[in-house]
Design brief:
128 residues, mainly alpha, 5 helices
Length: 128
């Protein structure tokens, strides 16, 4: 599939409305296109550049618990953590449960745990 996509845009220039358009960025003039090609190559080669490298030292228990709080495996990327955090925060936000006092208390507690877990993971990924 990747070779089909690459062959489709293999011609460096196309003529659109009489103007030459560079579809391929071999010289690095279009960083978004270069990044897209790199992501496609990673996918085709079976590697995923978004995954975190396996740690050289053991992952702390708090970090594993933070991943679990977000419902993720310990090899998830920061981007995956952010997506899971936002999704869970929407689901468990206290404002959604304002009509029932007990549910609102549970949601407040869950939101606090999600915030703590995400901050902990963010610090771990960024080396803080």
């Amino acid at each position: 599939m990747g070779s089909v996509l690459k062959s489709y845009i293999s011609d460096d220039t196309q003529h659109i409305f009489g103007e030459k358009v560079n579809w391929r960025s071999k010289t690095g003039k279009d960083p978004d296109l270069d990044a897209a090609y790199e992501e496609l190559d990673d996918f085709l080669n079976g590697t995923d550049s978004k995954k975190r490298e396996p740690p050289s030292k053991p992952v702390p228990k708090e970090i594993i618990q933070a991943f679990a709080e977000l419902g993720l495996e310990p090899d998830a990327s920061l981007e995956e953590c952010k997506e899971a955090y936002k999704k869970l925060l929407q689901k468990h936000h206290p404002d959604r449960h304002a009509k029932h006092q007990k549910n609102m208390e549970k949601a407040t507690d869950k939101t606090a745990r999600l915030n703590t877990a995400y901050k902990r993971l963010q610090g771990w990924f960024l080396g803080k």
